[in-house]
């Protein structure tokens, strides 16, 4: 039985679904939860300094990440679960690699995450963190697609 569930989140409906499923699983099995959010700060760390205040933008990105984690804690509380949280920073690294490294350090035995379920063309253009995690990790991964009503909103 899985005892350490690692749940990467963003502010999407599919991430909420992953939280709900992880909380249900944790309640039934007594598993521990770690909820993480990755902020990519590299995109605002260089160039255009004469037009943008990169430090202020990075601060705002971190604050938005804290809000995502706060919302995740509230979702879990609604479902009778608690967790530890972490905000991870990426400086140009692939987000999937950042997540995998942290999940290994935490000794996760299951990664639970949402996926937007884009088609092949959109995944090729935009990439997929969920697909990257699934392809590169040795840790089992549970992917949850959004409900049909969620996908229309995404």
Automatic annotation (TrEMBL):
**Matches recorded under CDD domains:** USP-like
Q: Where is the UspA domain?
A: 1-145
Q: Where is the secretion signal located?
A: none
Under Pfam families, the record lists:
Usp
The UniProt entry, under SUPFAM superfamilies, shows: Adenine nucleotide alpha hydrolases-like
Q: Which family is this sequence assigned to?
A: Belongs to the universal stress protein A family.
Any idea what this protein is called?
Universal stress protein
From the broadest rank down, the organism's phylogenetic lineage runs:
Bacteria, Pseudomonadati, Pseudomonadota, Betaproteobacteria, Neisseriales
């Amino acid at each position: 039985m899985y005892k350490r569930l690692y749940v990467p989140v963003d502010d999407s409906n599919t991430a909420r679904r992953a939280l709900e499923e992880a909380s249900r699983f944790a309640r039934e099995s007594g598993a521990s939860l770690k909820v993480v959010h990755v902020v990519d700060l590299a995109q605002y760390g260089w160039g255009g300094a004469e037009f943008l205040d990169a430090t202020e933008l990075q601060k705002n990105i971190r604050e938005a990440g804290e809000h995502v984690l706060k919302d995740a804690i509230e979702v879990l509380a609604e479902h009778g679960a608690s967790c530890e949280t972490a905000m991870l920073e990426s400086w140009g690294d692939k987000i999937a690699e950042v997540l995998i490294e942290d999940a290994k350090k935490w000794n996760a035995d299951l990664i639970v995450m949402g996926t937007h379920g884009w088609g092949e063309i959109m995944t090729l253009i935009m990439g997929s963190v969920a697909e990257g995690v699934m392809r590169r990790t040795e840790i089992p991964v549970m992917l949850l697609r959004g409900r049909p009503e969620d996908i229309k909103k995404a």
